[in-house]
Design goal:
Layout: E1 2-11, E2 21-29, E3 32-37, E4 44-49, E5 53-57, E6 59-64, H1 80-92, H2 97-113, E7 116-123, H3 126-136, E8 139-146, H4 152-169, E9 177-183, H5 191-204, E10 207-212, H6 216-226, H7 230-236, E11 244-248, H8 254-262, E12 266-269, H9 271-276, H10 284-289, E13 293-296, H11 309-324, H12 332-347, E14 362-366, H13 378-385, E15 391-396, E16 399-403, E17 406-407, H14 412-433
Parallel strand pairs: 1-4, 1-5, 6-7, 7-8, 8-9, 9-10, 10-11, 11-12, 12-13
Antiparallel strand pairs: 1-2, 2-3, 5-14, 14-15, 15-16, 16-17
Helix pairs in contact: 2-3, 2-14, 4-5, 11-12, 12-13
The structure holds inosine and zinc ion.
Length: 434
């Protein structure tokens, strides 16, 4: 007997070797997808009727600072340097472990509700993030954000903290958690420090998560300091490889794109954050044309201001169209791949497709809605018309985290209340310091 059978749904497999099934069945057993077919004789403890729904792989959000939900709407409409240096960093200086716990719970609640099954996080007090991920049932690739700022002593303690986190958390929660090294960016960490991080990551067999060329200011600073851009500098120290997740990558030359592609670097595109902070437009179409693995991320809630992947997909598609002045650029199907298949590849998890043997990380999207009728083309609706609140059911590792709009893995109202309380106290501490 199977654990879960989802029947009568439109199965959007995202598997290039398996066509979508108009009225199909997904069988889940021991955390894995055991069968994808038109009919089954199999029985299960839980049978979900997905009539009028789309059954698809859940989203992978490849760049977040989950705890920053506490700063949602706190400092908007500012330039990135002003935003970060005068508002966010002073506020983060007051953050406590319990704040990050509350903020991350709020983030995980939002992700479960909006169909995200895994996320790549870079922040502080990462043990708290680990605890929240472990109890929520989600998957995550977690990294302690190391900010060295050309201070050798600080660099040593930062790397030590990063390493302690990697050693303790890599592979935790039955493999749902992986731990990465998180050097913040090439303009906040020295070349020497980045070399040490690269070496340590190889020794520990851990991946690396880093911001790369998010702004023109970073590009200019790097040129002044090293006589070359971030990508060339990182390439000169053999930093790149398929184990690197580079967020943003907005200010790339054609040569940079070749370097990223040739080194199989995973690129997390964050269009909403890039638009909100006016960072620029990443050359996504060119990267994809080269065969680079480009996935999607929301960035933190202070620059988005939510963690919804539906919005992110739509923004990604529209932004490429207007940038290239080509309405055929980044079509719906391709942007869905970025949000699922490519994200799973970046985090090296067997998710992102509805395929036999893959992780049972499945979402059910309710299409029986006014704004989703009529329905001609499923990918088109998912990218251009659907929204986070259309997700009905979220399953991760074969466990139902949200069942028919009811969150099971946590107490929803409690998480909202505690997040709000933590934010209020945090900001009053910040104000008191002014
Ligand atoms: O868009 C961004 N660019 C650069 N840094 C960011 C962005 N969003 C958040 N952080 C910052 O990165 C650190 C994570 O450890 C935090 O300081 C967070 O505020
Ligand atoms: Zn970021």
């Amino acid at each position: 007997m199977a654990d879960i059978i989802i029947k009568n749904g439109y199965i959007l497999t995202m598997d290039p070797s398996l066509e979508n099934i108009k009225n199909g069945v997904v069988v889940i057993e021991d955390g894995r997808i055991a069968d994808v077919c038109e009919n089954t004789e199999e029985t299960a403890d839980t049978v979900i009727d997905a009539q009028g729904n789309v059954v698809m792989p859940g989203f992978v959000n490849t760049h977040t600072h989950a705890g920053m939900t506490l700063f949602r709407g706190y400092a908007d409409d500012l330039a990135l340097s002003d935003w970060l240096e005068n508002h966010i960093w002073p506020a983060e200086a007051e953050l406590t472990a319990s704040d990050v716990y509350a903020g991350t719970r709020l983030a995980c609640l939002e992700m479960v509700k909006s169909g995200t099954i895994a996320f790549a996080d870079m922040y502080f007090f990462m043990e708290e993030v680990g605890k929240v991920v472990e109890s929520s049932g989600l998957r995550a690739a977690l990294s302690y954000g190391m900010i060295e700022l050309w201070d050798e002593e600080k660099g040593k303690t930062e790397l030590k903290k990063g390493k302690a986190f990697v050693n303790e958390w890599n592979g935790k929660a039955g493999g749902r958690i992986s731990a990465m090294y998180g050097p913040h960016a090439p303009n906040t960490c020295s070349k020497e420090f980045l070399m040490k991080v690269r070496e340590q990551a190889t020794v520990d067999n851990a991946k690396i998560h880093i911001h790369v060329l998010e702004t023109e200011a970073e590009l200019n600073q790097m040129k002044e300091q090293y006589g070359m851009c971030s990508v060339n500098m990182l390439d000169s120290i053999d930093f790149f490889g398929p184990d690197v997740l580079a967020a943003h990558c907005v200010w790339l030359s054609d040569g940079d794109m070749d370097i990223l592609r040739n080194n199989n670097v995973n690129i997390s595109h964050n269009p909403v954050s890039n638009m909100k902070l006016a960072s620029g437009i990443a050359p996504v179409t060119k990267l994809l044309d080269r065969g680079a693995n480009v996935c999607l991320g929301t960035d933190g809630c202070a620059s988005n201001n939510n963690l919804g992947m539906f919005e992110e997909m739509k923004a990604a598609a529209l932004l490429q169209k207007v940038d290239t002045m080509d309405p055929m650029a980044l079509p719906a199907r391709q942007v869905l791949e970025m949000a699922t298949v490519n994200g799973a590849k970046a985090l090296d998890i067997n998710s992102g497709m509805i395929r036999n043997g893959y992780n049972a990380d499945v979402i059910i999207v309710d299409m029986n809605k006014a704004h989703l009728s009529p329905l001609y083309d499923v990918p088109s609706h998912l990218v251009y018309s659907a929204g986070s609140s259309d997700v009905r059911t979220t399953i991760v590792n074969g466990k139902v985290l949200m069942d028919d709009y009811r969150v099971i893995c946590m107490d929803e109202q409690n998480v909202i209340d505690e997040g709000r309380d933590a934010a209020e106290e945090l900001i009053s501490r910040v104000d008191a310091k002014k």
